Amino acid sequence: MILLVVLFLCFISSYSASVKGHTTGLSLNNERLYKLTYSTEVFLDRGKGKLQDSVGYRVSFNVDVVLLWRSPDGDDDQLIQITIKDVNVENVNQQRGEKSIFKGKKPPQIIRKENLEALQRPVLLHLIHGKVKEFYSYQNEPIAIENLKRGLASLFQMQLSSGTTNEVDISGDCKVTYQAHQDKVTKIKALDSCKIERSGFTTPNQVLGVTLKATSVTTYKIEDSFVVAVLAEEIHALRLNFLQTVAGKIVSKQKLELKTTEAGPRLLPGKQVAAIIKAVDSKYVAIPIMGQVFQSECKGCLSLSEHWQSIRTHLQPDNLSKAEAVRSFLTFVQHLRTAKKEEILQILKAEKKEVLPQLVDAVTSAQTPDSLDAILDFLDFKSDSSIILQERFLYACGFASHPDEELLRALISKFKGSFGSNDIRETVMIIIGALVRKLCQNEGCKLKAVVEAKKLILGGLEKPEKKEDTMMYLLALKNALFPEGIPLLLKYAEAGEGPVSHLATTTLQRYGAPFITDEVKKALNRIYHQNRKVHEKTVRTTAAAVILNNNPSYMEVKNILLSIGELPKEMNKYMLSIIQDILRFEIPASKMVRRVLKEMIAHNYDRFAKTGSSSAYTGYIERSPHSASTYSLDILYSGSGILRRSNLNIFQYLGEAALHGSQVVIEAQGLEALIAATPDEGEENLDSYAGMSAILFDVQLRPVTFFSGYSDLMSKMLSASGDPVSVVKGLILLIDHSQELQLQSGLKANMEVQGGLAIDISGSMEFSLWYRESKTRVKNRVAVVISGDITVDSAFVKAGLEISAETEAGLEFISTVQFSQYPFLVCLQMDRDTAPYRQFETKYERLSTGRGYVSRKRKESLIAGSEFPLHQENSEMCKAVFAPPPESSSSGWF
């Protein structure tokens, strides 16, 4: 009895090993022909899952599969032949009816005869243990047709046991997980792990970026080690983070079913698979199972020159406030990405002066090697006759969505050369800083050009060739924000002269909390409390702001609160407003401030009753459960009532991610002599100056000077018209995501989102001695277009979904001060104009022969204008709003 049990166990063990050896993957029976049906379908929609609202198509055919050879050394080494027959193409949406693009057309008319013949030529698949060893086809077949065969062949690659492994199939080299349950096997492919060469790029900033989700699940039903049915579903979903109505989804399905088996050909004898393949057909060649890239032929498409001529009127300066200008800009950037250097250069050289700046914006935004070579050949930095074009090129580089090392290397090379304008030289260095930061954000900090740029900036700060270059290198560091520069910033913040110290401190303000260490805070506390030297109010208040925004300690908050009352009059009011704003807006430091305010010495009437006109206020522009837009305005006056600094910021938040949308700072100093007033402490010897500095989409721009020095001031007062000074103007490619997908069915998909804007930020400062009044004005005008485009292409039929949104908006900030008495009369206004908001949806299906179906939808609404509060006392003060002096006044405005 025991002997029988032992023999039984040995038999079971050997049988189990045998089954395991034979069932690692699919196994075909000898001399059998397997007849199957196959279909692959794809549809696109906006993620709502309604088939009637989708566009797409289905390709179906019959499939014959036969085993040609099995290795004498092992049953799991097989060569199979796959033959496609009876091809058909139809709509996924059967409700299309008479509008179907396939109605009345036979497969040869849709696919084309030569493509159909290629599709029906058999392919060979060499499988070892269920995995594809080689894929054999004929040379010079159309790539799109070969990809359809690859998609079918990849379904035959699988294993019958559970586990995780890497497989190479049409999607690339991917991580896959198998879950085996009796006669059913589920394969889950991690699409984000697939390694396959495909073009694409994205915007690193999460606020301006997209969220992508991709899944792939294939279910096999197995009988006798072969498939009875295979169902595969692959989904790709895209959503723009801050505007979630720009969204789309691709659903791709494959279905393979066994219909019958019948007698098939005998196995070919032989030990080597190569000899077998040669015997079948010597024209077979091994080709990659991975999907290959193809480009569809574009019939009737405009040339680059024709395209430019069709849109150039939209890009005239007078039309830049319209959404049509931005839409034309985005489409032309797309075309430029496929253009050669010579084509681009030809258009640049032929264009007239008024439209040339917009053309430079587009060429630079294309961000291809050809477009960069063309624009660098076109611009002459040694000449001062094209300063506007040079500046537009540089700012477009700073806003580049996915800059590469070559662009940075080109700017470094230009910086080492000669310039016709020192302003352009400074701008080159400032933009070098912006590129350093963007490349570092994309894991490019160790690139040679980045290392060289860092050395250039640090070297310029350690030993500047000219004293005036210090500001230039600080502005570059304000963009680059690499931690190696912090020790130098502390040095300039503590020991530098007024403007240098202020710039160094505002640069520290842009660093994240992890970089504001205890050592940095000690230096900032010394600046604020003037432990080592007297500092200007602008420097001290910035130092306090950095401390309060970066996890301040109990004693740091307490010492700042205790200083209120001992400061110059307007600085007292400013710091009090900062503290009140922290509490009102629940800024993170508010918890610590509330703790300190429990002490009577810090929280008393004498301290919190300080009067003045300086203020700080933060509020919401828009707020939703997943995002928020905020604005903040802080405005500091001198003791004599003249504006010292106004600082307007707009931020966009999305979860933990933030984007510094814009900052406009207007500064003035040394104007007290004009009204015979006494300067504040530490500001007795300041030169007369007024200017404006701006940050736009996290990029610091070169500051603009209204006047510098007393003589320049008097000249501007006598001659200026009060017209605004432009800080930045142009077309910006802000959102830029492009992704080429290889669907496992063999079809090619593209997902693209572009967002552009035409922007004009200008500012002015007006000053009247006669009326003892000053006015600052910052005006933002923008036209915005965001466009999403999702397509699936088989080379003979294409389906697409386009979603876009656009608006034209304006935001204006005005501060008016009347300093004929104290406290001054101050009116602060920030207004947003009523703005149109338009949404478009276009869905289409199109044959390569030209026949197509198009569905369009449009929705329009108005975003109501609004007036934003700027500080608590504003409504009372604005009751005393006064009219500006008449134009005939001889006092002069600037």
TrEMBL record:
Compartments in which it is found: Endoplasmic reticulum; Golgi apparatus
Chemical reaction(s) catalysed: a triacyl-sn-glycerol(in) = a triacyl-sn-glycerol(out); a 1,2-diacyl-sn-glycero-3-phosphocholine(in) = a 1,2-diacyl-sn-glycero-3-phosphocholine(out); a 1,2-diacyl-sn-glycero-3-phosphoethanolamine(in) = a 1,2-diacyl-sn-glycero-3-phosphoethanolamine(out); a cholesterol ester(in) = a cholesterol ester(out)
Chief site of localization: endoplasmic reticulum
SUPFAM superfamilies for the chain: Lipovitellin-phosvitin complex, beta-sheet shell regions (SSF56968), Lipovitellin-phosvitin complex, superhelical domain (SSF48431)
Organism superkingdom: Eukaryota
Keywords: Disulfide bond, Endoplasmic reticulum, Golgi apparatus, Lipid transport, Signal, Transport
TM spans (from-to): none
PROSITE patterns the record matches: VITELLOGENIN
UniProt KW RNA-binding keyword: no
Subunit structure: Heterodimer; heterodimerizes with the protein disulfide isomerase (P4HB/PDI). Interacts with APOB. Interacts with PRAP1.
PANTHER family attached to this UniProt entry: MICROSOMAL TRIGLYCERIDE TRANSFER PROTEIN LARGE SUBUNIT (PTHR13024:SF1), MICROSOMAL TRIGLYCERIDE TRANSFER PROTEIN, LARGE SUBUNIT (PTHR13024)
Protein name per Swiss-Prot or TrEMBL: Microsomal triglyceride transfer protein large subunit
Species for this entry: Camelus bactrianus
